[in-house]
Structures are given as C-alpha cells and as structure tokens.
Amino acid sequence: MLLAAEAAKPYLGVFAEGKFAQFVLMLVFAFIVWFMVTRAKAGMKVPEIRKINGLEALDEAIGRATEMGRPVHFTPGLGGVGNPMTFAAFGFLGYVAKLCAKYDTRLIQTNADYVVLAINEEIIRQAYLEAGRPDAFNSDDVQFMSDQQFAYAANVMNMFQKDKPAANIMMGAFWAESLIFAETASFVGAIQIAGTAATAQLPFFITACDYTLIGEEIYAASAYLSKEPVLYGSLVGQDWAKIFVFALILVGTVIANFQAKGNWLTSILKK
User: Fold this and answer.
1) Which three-class secondary structure state does DSSP give residue 246?
2) What values do phi and psi take at 81, rounded to 5?
3) The whole model's pTM is what?
4) Distances (CA, A) of 22 to 16, 95, 249, 261, 262
5) β-pairing verdict for 72-77 and 167-173
6) In the chain, where are the structural domains located?
7) What are 76-130's pLDDT values in tens digits?
8) In CATH, what number does 54-226 get?
C-alpha cells in the first residue's frame, strides 16, 4: 500500500505522472508560435511559405471567367465562424474578390451561415475598396441560401444552372454536398479549385475538381495569400514546432537503439 501511495504522488507536488514533460513541451510550442507571430507583426523577417501549385490556378480560373464574360462563384462551405477551415476561407475570399474587382468580373458568394455571410460581405467590400473599385461592389451577390445542408446545396445548384459561373472556388468545411457542387459546376463547364481539411470529402474534390488543396495546404495557402501577420506567423511557428517534435523523435529513436533499457530522455519524458 505504501508503494502504491508513493507511485501516485504528484511530481513537484502538482503534476500527475507523465504530465510535466507534456506541460513543458506545450510551453515550448506556445513560445515558438508567439515568437513568430511577434516577428511577423513587427515586419521582421520570418521563414517564407512556399507557394502551392493550386494557387496559380486562381488567377487562371478568374482570368478565364473574365474572358468568357461569366461570373466566379465562391463558397466557404457549411462551417461556422468557430471552424478553422472557415477562417482559412476568409484569406482566399479576400484574394479572389480583389482579382474579380481588378478584372471587373462578377463574384457570386454563397453562404449557409448568416454570421459568415456578414463577415464575407465586409471582406469583399474591403477588397473592392482596396482595388479602387468600391462602386463595383454589389451586396446582392453575397447571398444567404439556407442553413440547412441540402437546402443550401439545392439553391447553389439552381444558381449554377441560372448564372453558369465559369469558375467555381470551394474552400472551407464541406460534407456530403461537396460532390453535388463539384458535379453541377462541372456540368456547366466551370473550372474548379477546391480545398478542405475534411478528409472524408477530399476524394470527391480530387476526382471532380481541376485543382485540390489537401488538408493543411488550405491553411498555408490562406496565410500565403492574405499575408496576415497572425496567420502567417502562427503557421510558421507551428511548422517549427513540428520540426522540433520530429527532431525529438529522431533523437529518442537513436538513443533507444543504443540503450535497450531506460535512458535519460525516456526518464525526462516520463516525468
């Protein structure tokens, strides 16, 4: 009984066994992210994010729509403002809206969440203002379809048939409506660029769309396009944290292979 009581004794009187190392690692990761965000906000040099191939297709898709005299459609999917994929979509939308304003191309933006709609409307309005064409902004093209999944999908399908956009850009959180959108847009001849971190929907986008951003690529691409310091710095910080974890695993693997029994790294991580 005494041994069991001693084993259950918290480390440093606070941490349960195995939690102290996790706490320290969490502080290290938080510091790395904070450091990179601070540098990005101050305009100091931070490691660059490589350009993802699918981003070049945005200019191509919007240029094609401009040449054809047909609109561009953008949807962030069904996610609300609490969804990280929706936040990633905001960066894409600002870039797309600015290009549409520059080329005088109609942008139709559909929504399934009224809070997201309000944010998207302001993003597009600001993009048109920055492009020097505030008069070209049309709030009627920022549309709330429905907060019900398949009612939203049906309304978007109707829009595809009526307005026949030449480019369909889908970035954000998607569920079963993903293939419905992709098939309908393909039917009207739209070039399609999609991206999501919802792994169950990626096969549909990869199959039906011209370009697909997979998983974390949407976060990297959003930070790359928006150049927003918090997004950019946090993304770089997370990548450095992943490199740190990988190095820790590598060192641990090497030590474990040379020391069959307990070693200093294992003993530290167990605390």
Assistant:
1) helix
2) -70, -15
3) 0.84
4) 11, 39, 14, 22, 19
5) parallel
6) 54-226, 228-256+263-271
7) 999 999 999 999 999 999 999 999 999 999 999 999 999 999 999 999 999 999 9
8) 3.40.50
